[in-house]
Amino acid sequence: MKNATTKNKGESYYAKNKKAYHDYIILENFEAGVVLNGAEVKAIKKSQANLKGAFVTVENSEAFLKQAHVTNYKFADIKALDPVRPRKLLLSKKEITTLAQNLEQKGTTIIPLELYPKNGLIKLRIGICKGKKTYDKRETLKKRTQDLEVNQAVKRYK
Questions:
Q1: In the beta sheet, which residues pair with residue 131?
Q2: Global pTM?
Q3: Which is nearest to 95 in space by CA: 135, 128, 144, 66?
Q4: H helix or E strand, kind and range, residue 139
Q5: 145 by DSSP, 3-state: which?
Q6: Paired strand residues for 26
Q7: Distance between CA 75 and CA 86 in Å, rounded?
Q8: Are strands 87-90 and 62-66 parallel, antiparallel or unpaired?
Q9: Is 48:73 a contact under the CB 8 Å cutoff?
């Protein structure tokens, strides 16, 4: 796992949608498999994927990841693949119905949060999200800076 970005203890990911954590309140998380071809797998393992602006839709009782950008792998035979093509997500029927019901509610959306390795496979963490208001974002930033100051003060006096 040389190319997976590591953060904290043992947590690693290939791509993370940091903007989603800032712009949305995450109500529920799901883990999904992604249908990829070989060149896309290689590109993702080289961290050449971007989830910014991506979203999940449910069509005909199947879930799809849309607008996620996976750069074409430069050593691949097939160069004509669209980097932002829709990719099918592998979820159980129960999870798909839960996602579909939440999509029908006003103000909720399904956002991909991160691509990460798990037992040799590439998994996608998706979240049912509700958009934050501007004042919610400000409160989050205030809380984060206060926590940071407290942690620094604790480190100083140890």
A1: 24
A2: 0.79
A3: 128
A4: helix 134-156
A5: helix
A6: 129
A7: 22
A8: antiparallel
A9: yes
For 98-126, give one letter per residue: b (16+ CB within 10 A) or e: bbeebbeeeebbbbbbbbbbeeeebbbbb
Q: What is the pLDDT, as a whole number, of residue 82?
A: 86
Question: Can you give the pLDDT at residue 2?
Answer: 54
For the record, the structure tokens of 35 come out as 């249908």
**Which burial class, exposed, middle or buried, applies to 71 when counting CB atoms under 10 A from its CB (0-12, 13-18, 19+)?**
middle
How far, in Å, CA of 130 to CA of 108, rounded? 5
Q: Return the structure tokens found at 95.
A: 């999870």
The residue with tokens 């999509």 is 103
Domains of the chain, each with CATH number or no CATH: 5-132 (2.40.280.10)
Give me the count of residues in the chain. Answer: 158
Residue type, 95: E
Structural tokens at position 65: 């990841």
pLDDT of residue 23: 87
Residues of the chain with pLDDT under 70: 1-11, 79
CA distances to 31, 71, 118, 125, 132 from 89, in Å = 10, 19, 16, 11, 26
